[in-house]
Hints:
The protein has 136 residues and is α+β, with helices and mostly antiparallel strands. The protein has a single domain (5-135), classed as HIT-like (HIT family, subunit A), CATH 3.30.428. It has three helices and five strands. Strands 1-2-3-5-4 form a five-stranded antiparallel sheet, with helices on one face. The two termini are 25 Å apart.
Amino acid sequence: MSDTVFSKIVRGEIPAQKLYEDDHVIAILDVGPLSKGHTLVIPKEPAETMADLSDPAAAALGRVLPRIARALKKATGAESYNILQNNGESAGQSVMHVHVHVIPRFDDEGLAMDWQAKNADSGELEELGRKIARLL
Length: 136
């Protein structure tokens, strides 16, 4: 894994507005926010994608995300928020270190989503489901 801006923030080489830190995770305000309070939750373990992350590091992310969401709602007054995590360039990942966006949502700003669901073939779903289940 390359040395990323998030690796440097975790090591304290680049300043950041820290909101939370423990042995496994750091949460900082995004310097290019989509809305007021846009936060990045970053595991200290160096991993490019969620699939590369160890189970303990992933569990640490999962433990802190609800706390961050509650604090952001109270601090910003936002009733809604997105939790977004991108894996790989074609999924929109721009920094190749796992990070989770917690984005407070307001009616007049932030993230625009164009979700275009497709109709799935039930036979393909069944076959793919069995294949994935075997791999787990």
